[in-house]
Amino acid sequence: MSDADEQSWEESLIADMREHEGRPTSGPLAGHPLLLMRDRGAKTGEPRHAVLTYTRDGEDYIVAGTAGGSPRTPAWVANLRVNPDLTLEIGHRSFPARATVVVDEAERQRLWAAHVVALPWFADYPDKAQRAIPMIRLTPTAS
After folding, report:
1. Rounded to an integer, what distance in angstroms lies between the CA atom of residue 1 and that of residue 14?
2. What pLDDT digit, counting tens, does each position of 51-71 carry?
3. pTM value?
4. How far is CA 42 from CA 50, 76, 95, in A?
């Protein structure tokens, strides 16, 4: 897929998410719980964004740095380590949040197990990636 095609696909996905409360109705992510995370680049400080599948842990949103099972951790994980303050958009809501990359291994495994229960297609990503999948807690903050 060319960069232009990928950008067009992502723009369509985001529009579908916004129209359907964060659960697109078409394409390969139809019905999946998705959020739009707006963060800043680790090196440049430039605005970045990522569309991510999430689960919940209490009031927090939990995302996994799978990169679809790629052997490389997605760049947005490094961004969040340096710049943890971000904005989440889910459906028609947009709000500030703070990211915490989970470092406690027992907690990371607990969150991963809950993620896989809710989103079973994630189960084979660690084997495909040959790496531990980072789990990130996104905690809403006061605006």
Report:
1. 18
2. 999 999 999 999 999 998 899
3. 0.86
4. 14, 8, 21
Structure tokens at 16: 């579908």
Residue type, 135: M
Across the chain, which distance is largest between two alpha carbons, in Å?
A: 41
Are 124 and 70 a contacting pair, CB within 8 Å? Answer: no
Q: What is the DSSP string of 25-93?
A: SSSTTTT--EEEEEEE-TTT--EEEEEEE-EEETTEEEEE--GGG-SSPPHHHHHHHH--EEEEEETTE
Tokens of 103: 């470092």
HEC secondary structure over 21-32: CCCCCCCCCCCC
| Domains of the chain as residue ranges with CATH | 3-140 (2.30.110.10)
Whole-number Cα distances in Å, 82 to 21, 26, 63, 101, 106: 30, 34, 17, 11, 23
- E strand or H helix that includes residue 136: strand 135-140
72 is written with which tokens? 């490389």
